[in-house]
Amino acid sequence: MPTRDDELIDNDNDAHSAASHAPHATPVNKRRTPAREGRVLGQPGFVLHSYPYKETSLIVDLFTRDHGRIGVVAKGAKRPHSKLRGVLQTFQPLSVSFSGKSELRTLIDAEWVGGMLPIEKNALLCGFYLNELLVKLLARDDAHPALFNHYVATLNELAHGEPAPIALRKFERALLKETGVAADLTRCTTTRAPVEPDGLYVVDPERGARTAQAVESWPVVSGKTLVDMEREDYADPQTKAQSKQLMRFLLAYHLGGAPLNTRQILIDLMQL
User: Fold this and answer.
1) In whole angstroms, what is the distance from residue 132 CA to residue 193 CA?
2) Antiparallel, parallel or unpaired: β 104-112 and 68-74
3) Highest taxon of the source (predicted)?
4) How many CA atoms lie within 13 A of 171 on its CB side?
5) Beta 68-74 vs 57-64: how paired, if at all?
6) What are the φ and ψ backbone dihedral angles of 139, each rounded to 5 degrees?
7) From CA 255, how far away is CA 31, in angstroms rounded?
């Protein structure tokens, strides 16, 4: 089945698909520039995904601070001596310039900014997992500067050796919050009372936490786990285990059943 990007390319007489690598958080810029304005210069961004376009170019999915996720055509980027060839790499902090008003813009320039340690080995798989989540859950041209900062911070955490399960849980929760689909986990939706640490709960993906019944098809977690997740405190082994199952359930729901390829690899290799 053709993807949204394939439709865009076909409309422009184009086609194809593939994927691709870096870590210190930048402050949130509260100013949001209007989406799809004609020309944008020096925008902080990262490559999420890229694939061949015609003989010498690439289609690149970028995550930018003030414009969110955008698609650009990088003309001539596959040529041996192209400046862009070595710059358009995943997990590298970039300053990108682009133009155009359609959903698929034209990349004018991209420069490596630096200042972040590279992510390596197993952390690299975690980075690809973050990118896949962003590609599948973020709408185009929907600015999320706070989420952009979370992304940068998570790459830094992975590069500096923070345990991957903790870094990923925090980012997953931030992603659902920033996209407006995560409810407050510390309040019961049926009673409006605060969640009791000793109580047992399930989380309705559309409404939030409610008291668990005798038989449940959704993951049952303790109230303490929910409170810990809101505080980003994953020191308790039970919180680690239950939050993993809960986030897997919530993400699957909001993805509409679409598989996460990197998630399966992480499960197989690292039990994340």
Assistant:
1) 36
2) parallel
3) Bacteria
4) 27
5) antiparallel
6) -75, 155
7) 29
CA angle 117-121-124, nearest 5°? Answer: 65
Q: Is 268 helix (H, G, I), strand (E, B) or coil?
A: helix
Q: What is the pLDDT along the chain (272 residues), one digit of tens a residue?
A: 444 444 433 434 333 333 333 333 333 343 444 444 589 999 999 999 999 999 999 999 999 999 999 999 999 999 988 999 889 999 999 999 999 988 899 999 999 998 899 998 889 999 999 999 999 999 999 999 999 999 999 999 999 999 999 999 999 999 999 998 888 899 999 999 999 999 999 999 999 999 999 999 999 999 999 999 999 999 999 999 999 999 999 999 999 988 888 877 776 666 55
Residue 185 in tokens: 């986990």
Assign 143 to helix, strand or coil.
coil
Where are the alpha helices (H) located in 142-222, listed in sequence order? 145-159, 164-178
* CB 175 within 8 Å of CB 151: no
Closest by CA position to 100, among listed 75, 82, 130, 79:
75
Q: In terms of Cα–Cα distance, which of 243, 258, 268 is closest to 165? A: 243
pTM, to two decimals: 0.81
